[in-house]
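Handout, tutorial session.
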Amino acid sequence: MYESFYQLKTKPFALLPDSSFLYQGTEHQAAYSLLEYGILSEAPFMVLTGDPGVGKTSLLQKLIAEHGARHKIGLVTNARYDIEQLLPWILLSLGLSAKRLDPIEAYHLFSEFLSQESRRSRRVILVIDEAQSLGAELLEELRLLSNMNDGRALKLQIILSGQPDLYTLLQRIDMTQFAQRIVVDYHLKPLSETDTANCIRHRLHVAGGRPTLFTDQACALVHRLSQGNPRLINQVADITLTYGYAEQARTITAKLVAQAAIDRIKGRILPLAATEELVALASAPDEPAEHQGSSRTLSLELVVDEPSEAALSQSSEESYQRAMVLKEHAQFKEAVELFHAAARDKSLWFKANAQVGFCYVKMREPQAAIQAFCTALDDPMAPPNEITDVLYCLGRSLESVGKVDQAREVYDRINQSTPSYRDVPSRLRQPGTSSKRSEKVDGQAPARHSWFSGMIDNVQRFLIGSHK
């Protein structure tokens, strides 16, 4: 209805999970990094929890999309405690059988499939969504299925995603054996006020619209009403666009958000917070500053009738400089948020994301640091003289989480272009990190499956070209 008026290709705030609209703020980036670490480190069990609507399913869809080519992934979404067995639902999710098989036959079919995929150097990953509905007996069935891993090669990995009740269930004394096998677990929290504004503008940008359509004050009110819950953010933002279209408003202000929210909560169903301020906001005159199109939190503007590229770059540069001050004062979490905001300016993408990685190193969160460094190195315009430093930090972070092979690959690349860089030669000589690039298995050249190898290839030409 409002799409053409706001020049949108699609609805930006649809409630259906869509990984293409996923905004990876601080929370979601950390959660995704840990899940990816779990896959790469061959963790038998991983757990993701969070309140309804915080984006768990979208995160899982992104994981499936990015790792589905290397592994066979089955998604189970409709299993619950009152079914007799979970295995038939697993077979259905993997496309193995839609029939009701004898338990022994079903077990044999699943076991043979695991062995077949293992021979192809592929793992089977089961993603169980809404896992809090399974109950203890079905979770125990999953634990027993994990015993199919024979100790020589991991064949099966299981990701459980659910609401906080899942966390409570796994803490029970009778779930001790299961809990001991969980290598990765993360509780996904709501978005901060800064991330809420960035999320709104990110979704508008993906939908082809004007990222600064919502004013800063409007975004702040959406955050107070939703408490940073992405599903509620979408609900409030979507109904507000409808009201904006009805009034032919070219800019969405806090007043419009308040008016839309008042009508939306009349049914007493939508659980919004801070509703006591809505009546006053809805009847108050608009603040003139709201119509000036200013945006301090995100530099994604792409249309000609909005602030100039120079003005946006200046805003992002200010965010970057403020973040550097916060970093110097060890306020790393606050600095990370500002660095993410600064990175929306393409010219700051590399150094802002690199600084995010340095902050996470200081915060002793190596998985998040790895993700940030790789994000920085994905910039094809990265300064050649700075890439090696970031690659080195990536290698050290990989070492710190036991990913020795990936770290060795990074060090090899550095050593090719910059011999004697720092302590890279000695690190390559250390047991467990010595170069094995010439090794072959069964007469075949070893396949390169490291998750960042594609990124390394993208920047290799800069590394080699800058140090000849």
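The second record follows below. Compare its token runs with those of the first.
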Amino acid sequence: MASEASGIASASVAALKSVRSVFRVGGAARKYRKVKELGDPHLVHAESLARLNESREHANWAAAEAFVALDAYGKQDGEGRLELIGEAVDAAWEAMGEARHAAETLQRAERDVEKLNTVQGYAKKKQLTKIGKETVGGALGESTKAAAGVVTAVAAGTAGLASNPVGWGLAGAGAGLVLGVTLYKALRAATKRYEEVRRPEVWAPQGETPAEAASRSESLKHALKFWKKVSKGERQAMAREIYALAAGPHIPGSGGTTQEMRQSGMALLIALKAGPADHKLDEDAWVASLDDPAKTEAWIKEIAEQLASG
């Protein structure tokens, strides 16, 4: 009776965990599909980059023409010459400023396209990793354990089947799958904790002075603190990049982001289930929250959680 009850309980718990993993796989698959549907940033933003390059060329031509006019006024004689030269200098200075601004805008947009391409690739990779982990350790491993529990319960309730090698075999297989994934997660987390303190400059926020690197022994001790989550790793760095692309002009470092690029950053947030509907906000309130410096840390934390592969 005890064996039968144990088998039923084991099967029930494992079945629930298996169902949970199936839902998680489905959620990760949907995220992956939605991120993929955003398209290649190089192709999506090809037209806007072409427009910015055309604006830069026009600004350069305007600056060149302004300097030609300045040179021409400099060679003239007569009354009003100095006034004309002064106006030409002002025009040339303004044209140079516009040319410089156009060049900087284009360069910033090109860098942002590369960042967007990187973070989209990272987001897809993390969701594929989650699908793999949940499929092997959750859906497959737990369902195998559930089957083992059922076999054990049936065997225990049948006269003469005190020993059940089939049930034990299934349980061992399921436990092996779950244990393998668990060990993989533990080793990955330990490695990230080690790098977090051993090489803090790698994923330090831009403009922030990284902490002093810990010694090898101190880093190993930190790596073994399994109860601590990584606070400064690759996932957090990618979350900062995504937030910087989607954030409003009042957020430091995001003022130069083009509107097209900001829209792409917001679309990525929506694909990662961090959009206005997920926050139960209308679009205007959601956009305003992205432009609120007081909510920066909360946004980065949420994006990092949505990127997690589990």
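Points raised in discussion: The chain has a mean pLDDT of 75.
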